[in-house]
Amino acid sequence: MEIANKTSELFSQTEKILKKCDCDSSCHECLNHFWNQRVQSKLNRYIALQLLGWGEKGVIEKEFNSTEQYEIFKPIKELLELDGEFNVYFRKDAIKVLRNGIEKEIYIYISIYVE
Ligand SMILES: [Zn+2]
Predict the structure, then answer these.
(1) 65 CA distance to ligand 1 centroid (A)?
(2) What is the DSSP letter of 94?
(3) Which residue has the higher pLDDT, 40 or 67?
(4) Quick one: average pLDDT of 31-49?
(5) Distance (Å) from CA 43 to ligand 1 centroid
(6) 63: Cα separation from own chain's centroid
(7) Which domain covers residue 100, as residue numbers?
(8) Does residue 111 lie in a domain region?
(9) 8 C-alpha to center of ligand 1: Å?
(10) Burial code of 51-78, b = ≥16 C-beta within 10 A, e = fewer?
(11) What is the pTM of this model?
C-alpha cells in the first residue's frame, strides 16, 4: 500500500502518541529518540500537536491581533531602521515597511506557538 493512503492513519497514530504522553515538553515516550538527541531540548509535543493540526486540517491555533503583531515585529523594525534605508510604521492596524518609495505590508501569523 502506498504511503499516501496511510497518511490519515499516520496522523491519527501520531496525535494519539502526542496526546497520551504526560511529559511537559518531550520525552522518550513521545518525541525523543537516539537520532534527535541534539535537538531534544527544543522539542515540544504541544507544538508538534499544533503542527499536526495545521498540516492535517489547516487549523491555526490562534491569530495575533495587530497590536501583538507590532510588538513581535518591534525588534525587526529596530534592525531594519539601523541603516536608514527602511522606514517602518504602524498605520490602519497594519505594519508597513517603506524602502526606496516601495511600501509593503507585513502580516505576522502563527505557524506554531505555545503560550
Ligand atoms: Zn513525552
Answers:
(1) 32
(2) E
(3) 40
(4) 94
(5) 10
(6) 11
(7) 66-106
(8) no
(9) 22
(10) ebbeeeeeeebeebeeeebbeebeeebe
(11) 0.57
Distance 26 CA to ligand 1 centre (A): 4
Which residue from 59, 42, 50, 39 is spatially nearest to 14, judged by alpha carbons?
Answer: 50
Domain contains 114:
no
pLDDT tens-digit profile of 44-74? 999 899 889 888 888 777 778 888 888 889 9
Same domain for 46 and 72? no
Count of positions (residues) in the chain: 115
Residue with cell 513581535: 72
Burial of residue 110 (number of CB atoms within 10 Å: 0-12, 13-18, 19+)? middle
pLDDT category, 5, cuts 50, 70, 90? confident
CA atoms within 13 A on the CB side of 24: 3
If one counts the domains in the chain, the total is: 2
